[in-house]
Amino acid sequence: MYFWKQNILAVCIFLLVRRSSCDEVQGKSAGGMAELINTNITVLSARSIHMAGYHLHEIQHLTIINAPRLNHIVVEDLTKMPKLKSFYISQAPMLERIAPLPPLPLLRTFIVITSGLVEVPNLSHVHDSKRDKTPYLQVIDLEGNHIRRIPAHALRISADHVSLNLNLIEEVPAYAFKNAVISKLSFKGNTKLSQLDENAFAGILLLRQLDLSSTAISTLPIVGLENLQVLKIEKTPTLKYIPSIYDLRQLKEARLTHHFHCCAFAFPERHDPERHKIYEVQIAHLKQNCGKQKTSDTRKKRSLGAIKKTVKDDKWDYDDNSTSATNEEYGFKGDPDMFDSDSSEDDDQFHDLVEANSTKPQFSYNCEALIISKRTVECTPKPNALNPCEDVMGWTWLRVSVWLVVTAAVVGNLAVLIVLLAATSELTVPRFLMCHLAFSDLCTGLYLFMLAVVDLRYYGVFFNYAYDWQYGVGCKIAGFLSVFSGQLSVFTLSVVTSERWFAITYAIYLERRMSLSAAAKIMIGGWLFSVVMAGLPLAGVSDYSSTSICLPVESRNVGEGVYQGSLFLTNAVAWLTIVVCYVQIYRSLGGGGEKYGGRGAAAAAERRIANKMAMLIGTNLLCWAPVAFFGVTALAGAPLVDVSHGKVLLVFFYPLNAVANPFLYAILTKQYRRDFMMLIARTGKFNWLVEKYKLATTPPPTAHTNPSANPATLVPLVEYNRTQSQVSKENGDALF
User: Fold this and answer.
1) What is the pTM (predicted TM-score) of this model?
2) How many CA atoms lie within 13 A of 233 on its CB side?
């Protein structure tokens, strides 16, 4: 009796456990969810799913997460899951390939992310089944794999969203999406994607949105993109050219990388003049045909109601030639209803997602009053103060003025360099410093010359070539010359002024003069400083490509703000140094001639020196103060002028020193004229000019030059101190 009681109890426990396990399996499959998480399976098959406790005929959503050993999928077994709607795999690094999927009538979502796929699986047969009443996929997501290629016909599908983001795709081959119908296609984050075949999207039946952000493409093919509505190519600095609005005929929104590309949509007549002329001819034909239709309608005495009905039903009355031209212009060739919702799929399914628009031309047509609605594209980033839709020199008078400034700067500084370098006399410290100053100012002239040439070459259509200029070698060279010349010029001017102050202050102490070797060491430091400051934007600190005038004016972070602030601070310190030194020089020279009893010669010399000092200080102030003021306001986040008006500063104030310095410091001095005449005399030409100069500069005969003259009188001792004190004044006059 006890034995039978134990057996009965064991049987009851067995039945309860079995019932519990059966309920658990049914519970897993009841919601249609099959999840394999942190699994060690190597092959995904019907057997492995069944061993996990799932009924294949009940599975609607199959999910595999973190399967480090999974390397093969038996795709034929997927047909054993007739209710399968979604297929999801994540974190399967050993899964490199998936065989072509068989027909899966109910499949709507196919996702394989952060795995090891090296090519796109062939999904073209997923909806080949005759039982499939809604042949489209909602999502195909292959993000974060190692995909390098897109096999032919792999994506011959109908889908709402196809994502190939964050892969290793380098090229999209021709006809990669032939016969596909896709609402949204994304290649975002494929940093190695640099080549799009010109027929990459050819043959695609429908494509509404395309995302090529964070790639390395330089151009965008136009074949197959006639019905594109949204284009995203953000964070893609390599993008050179954007197609015309007449090629992207349905485009409504564009999110791009460069400001100047949006100018193509704002000014289509300048971006593509030839296509714009064709467009204007077609519009003229429409207006002409509209006039004919209006006359015909008047003669037929058609009622207003009939006219409204005709317009409403889109019964176009103009001739076949006009219709053909218009359809070709807007990209509607062949059957005008090829994308209408009634022509293929069910209205309640795929087309609720894709929104296949009618293919009628994008303007309203009314013979009462022809209304041409100009198509606009919402484009970002919009042209701003740093990158307006204009030429390098925005105004005609500015374009003419810059050539005058360039001529004066280049010719003046070249003349100084040629004469000083060709002089046979001993190289002195002032001459050495003048050579450096002339070279730095010559670089400023060359910078403006490059801007003027680019402006002249791309006159009227600069934004079409803005990428080649701003991101090319030319703009980097121009920007380097600008910053280098500015820094070297202010440094050299400071050294020149300090040397003059030192020479005049210690005129009678020859051993305290600045030596040539000391000047050379100082200028080596100036060159190194200038090269470093000009080279930082090339190394990533600020950028010469932020604007068409190739100056580092954009401040995007603290480092760039510090860099730009240091440029302004350098100019401010240099100007203060020059002002202090000239004030000290003027004070050491007597300050007005009172020490010499107001004698006319001494007073005239002091006035002459004072006038030159004022001119030197004034030109430096006019050159640096406006640029520094507006630069500091821009750096503080409250710019008072944009780049268009800032170009006036660039032409008339920034190069002021480069134009004035060769005249103030060299050409107008006696030493330069002497060296220039010596150079002419060595050529053997223009002898009459040399003789005229000799006659003008030959002093009158004295007791030393003419012995027959009366002997020189002795200088009284009381006058000796006054004569010695005039040495500094004479040195100052000679230096200025």
Assistant:
1) 0.72
2) 25
Residue pLDDT, tens place only, 527-567: 999 999 999 999 988 888 888 888 887 777 888 888 888 88
Q: Which domain covers residue 168, as residue numbers?
A: 28-234
Domain edge (last residue) among 168, 203, 234: 234
CATH number of 197's domain? 3.80.10.10
Query: Three-state DSSP class for 541?
Result: coil
| Burial class of 706 by CB neighbour count within 10 A (0 to 12, 13 to 18, 19+) | exposed
DSSP-based three-state secondary structure for 525: helix
Q: Is residue 426 part of a domain?
A: yes
Question: Quick check: helix, strand or coil at residue 431?
Answer: helix
Query: Phi and psi of 434, rounded to 5°?
Result: -65, -35
Query: Are 226 and 280 members of one domain?
Result: no
Residue with the bigger pLDDT between 168 and 690: it is 168
Range 304-308 contact pairs with CB under 8 angstroms and sequence separation of 24 or more: 307/367, 307/368
The mean of the pLDDT values for the chain is: 77
Q: Could you tell me if 704 and 564 lie in one domain? A: yes
Q: What is the pLDDT of residues 578-587, one digit of tens each?
A: 888 888 877 7
Look at residue 260 and give its three-state secondary structure: helix
Nearest residue to 345 via CA among 160, 214, 483, 121: 160
Q: At what angle do helices 396-422 and 643-652 cross, to 10 degrees?
A: 30
- 408 and 367 in a common domain: no
Contact criterion met (CB below 8 Å) for 94 and 116: yes
In angstroms, the CA 288 to CA 311 distance is 18
Residue 253 lies in a domain: no
* 225 shares a domain with 120: yes
Give me 500's structure tokens: 């003059």
In terms of phi and psi (left: phi > 0; alpha: psi -120 to 50; beta: otherwise), the region of 610 is alpha
Residue 165 lies in a domain: yes
Structure tokens at 249: 């005929």
CATH code of the domain containing 465: 1.20.1070.10
Q: Which residues pair with 253 in a beta bridge?
A: 230, 378
Looking at the fold, whether 412 and 361 belong to one and the same domain comes out as no
Residues 715/483, Cβ–Cβ less than 8 Å: no
CA distances from 373 to 158, 229, 284, 365, 438 (A): 33, 17, 14, 9, 58
pLDDT computed for residue 321 by the predictor: 38
| Of residues 133, 176, 171, the one with CA closest to residue 157 | 176
Whether residue 267 is contained in a domain is answered as no
Residues 185-213 pLDDT 10s = 999 999 999 999 999 999 999 999 999 99
**Residue located via tokens 């606009």:** 376
What Cα–Cα distance (Å) separates residue 227 from each residue in 253, 337, 347, 380?
A: 12, 13, 19, 20
CA dist., res. 252 & res. 232, Å (int) = 11
> 189 and 90 in one domain?
yes
Domain count, the chain: 4
The DSSP string of 243-256 is --TTTSTT--EEE-
Q: Which two tokens stand for residue 144?
A: 């974060």
Q: Indicate whether 641 and 656 sit together in one domain.
A: yes
Q: Domain boundary at 344, 374, 404, which? A: 374
Shared-domain flag, residues 283 and 422: no
Instruction: For 405-462, write each residue's pLDDT tens digit.
Output: 999 999 999 999 998 888 777 788 888 998 999 999 999 999 999 999 999 999 888 8
CA 293 to chain CA mean position, Å: 49
Distance CA 446, CA 485 (A): 10
